[in-house]
Write a structure and sequence with these properties.
Largest sheet: 7 strands, mixed
Order of helices and strands: HHHHHEHHEHEHEHEEHEHHEEHEEH
Shape: globular
Strand content: 5-15%
CATH superfamily of the largest domain: Type I PLP-dependent aspartate aminotransferase-like (Major domain)
Strand order of the largest sheet: 1-7-6-5-4-2-3
Number of strands: 11
Mean pLDDT: 94
Structural class: alpha/beta
Length: about 500
């Protein structure tokens, strides 16, 4: 019997088990006490670099247990914890613990989910996950799609599919520069910045975006949308796509998806829904009317790492006709021997990546672990807590509640004493609340983000957290008021 090859990367069964048990025990303790300390330490880059050290790359290796113990110390004592019950900033959820174990298993097998032959079971699990996600949000499980890194990539993937489907076919060979068609896309002024990136990256250009004003409810104004389409057609432009928001990132507003879908049918445009944040709420029966029209979408972006509580990274693009992704992304270089069977599903033909990690496993596992009823409960609870946040702000004499939609509440601190003139008052409140947000984020008692709504700089709390409770929301109100008073007092003393 030939001796086993020795390798610096190799770990014995005993060593792997020892380090693995230590890590799992450490993570278990961390998850059990995640709400006991601050959301973040607020340490500066200079401080963090001092903890990390500035030594050169080691010439020789170190033992795995020493490395892992140091990594645990660095991450558990010097991080921002988006799983903390008082983390309401941006839209990163508290990650389901099972997802961490699924990621470990995925990394151990290490399938390349770019080609079926390289990842036979992982490919089937991703296909099943895609079908379950479609079913979850209320569209046909025959929708196809692909798991990607997050919202930007999910929307980019759909954007190029729309361009392939609706732009002149000669663009694939000759490019946009050689084509006289002036392509335009339409979206609400509340649409996430991904649309600007996509227009720049993929040849539409910033002037190819038609930013449609919002109505009194924060939704894209349907009348103005149709006027813009008609005007562009009359002036020789080529409309290709309308983007509807299913939970815009600032306020959580869901556009009138049904009316947008009807306009897209009338004018033969691709209907894309950016539901990266909000579309999972479509699972709640009481919100069915809010999301009416989702089934008309040609493509939908959603992020399991937002409101399905998956660890990063996990985004998803769903398309009504999966062939549109193949038409957009499929290539067949001679060195690919990936199509020995017509039935093989090769994910490199569905998106940007050739080599792809196994993102689906953690989503697949959580969908089964929690179940539809569990998600209805958790998502519904997040919405209830957001509504409580809004009501408490309404009742407090030093807070102004601004908006509440889905699980997002916006508000601002408004001290009793402030400048008398309206213009000076608004400028002061904007400055005050921006300073308040920065202090809150540094101190780490709570982590909120911001939104600017009709010129008002607001604190924004987005609850996609299964650990947050009513007590946390009540304490957050107290923290905001306490710190707001301090900053206002400091400002008055300076003035």
């Amino acid at each position: 019997m030939l001796p086993e090859r020795t390798s610096p990367a190799r770990m014995s069964k005993e060593e792997f088990r020892k380090v693995g048990y230590y890590l799992v025990d450490s993570i278990s303790d961390f998850m059990d006490r995640i709400g006991d300390g601050p959301v973040t330490t607020g340490e500066t880059s200079t401080q963090l670099q001092a903890f990390l050290g500035t030594t050169s790359l080691p010439e020789t290796g170190m033992t795995a247990d020493v490395i892992m113990k140091r990594a645990v110390d660095l991450l558990f004592n010097h991080s921002l914890f988006n799983g903390h019950p008082k983390f309401l900033g941006y839209i990163t959820s508290s990650a389901a613990p099972l997802g961490a174990l699924a990621d470990l298993l995925s990394a151990a097998v290490n399938p390349n989910v770019g080609a079926n032959i390289l990842s036979p079971m992982a490919t089937e699990i991703e296909k099943q996950t895609i079908g379950w996600l479609a079913e979850f949000i209320g569209v046909s499980p025959t929708y196809g799609g692909i798991l990607v890194s997050g919202g930007n990539m999910a929307n980019f993937t759909a954007f190029l599919a729309a361009r392939t489907a609706k732009a002149p076919k000669s663009i694939r060979q000759d490019g946009i520069a050689a084509n006289d068609a002036r392509l335009v896309v339409y979206c609400s002024k509340a649409t996430h910045a991904w649309i600007e990136k996509a227009a720049f990256f993929f040849g539409i250009g910033a002037n190819g975006i038609r930013w449609i004003e919002q109505d009194d409810f924060g939704k894209m104004h349907i009348g103005l949308l149709e006027q813009a389409i008609k005007r562009d057609l009359k002036n020789g432009y080529t409309p290709i796509m309308v983007v509807g928001n299913a939970g815009d990132v600032s306020t959580g507003v869901v556009d009138d998806l049904k009316s947008i879908g009807a306009l897209c049918k009338t004018y033969n445009l691709w209907f894309h829904i950016d539901g990266a944040y909000g579309i999972p709420a479509a699972v709640i029966p009481e919100l069915k009317n809010v999301f009416a029209g989702v089934e008309d979408a040609d493509s939908i972006a959603l992020d399991p790492h937002k409101w399905l509580y998956s660890p990063l990274e996990a985004g998803c693009t769903l398309v009504k006709d999966p062939q549109t992704l193949i038409d957009t992304y499929s290539t067949h270089p001679v060195y690919y021997n990936f199509n020995s069977s017509e039935s093989q599903h090769n994910y490199y033909e569905y998106g940007f990546q050739n080599s792809r990690g196994f993102r689906a496993l953690k989503v697949w596992a959580a969908l089964q672990h929690v179940g539809r009823e569990g998600y209805i409960n958790m998502i519904g609870k997040n919405i209830e807590l957001s509504q409580l946040f809004f009501r408490l702000a309404q009742r407090h004499p030093e807070l102004e509640a601004i908006t509440q939609n889905l699980s997002i509440t916006t508000l601002r601190y408004v001290p009793a004493e402030r400048p008398d003139d309206a213009k000076g008052k608004e400028a002061y409140l904007n400055t005050l609340n921006e300073a308040l947000l920065n202090r809150l984020q540094r101190k780490g008692d709570v982590f909120l983000s911001n939104a600017v709504i009709k010129g008002k700089y607001c604190l924004r709390g987005c609850i996609v957290n299964f650990r947050t409770t009513e007590k946390d929301i009540e304490e957050i109100i107290d923290i905001v008021v306490r710190e707001g008073r301090k900053i206002h007092k400091e400002s008055v003393n300076v003035l």
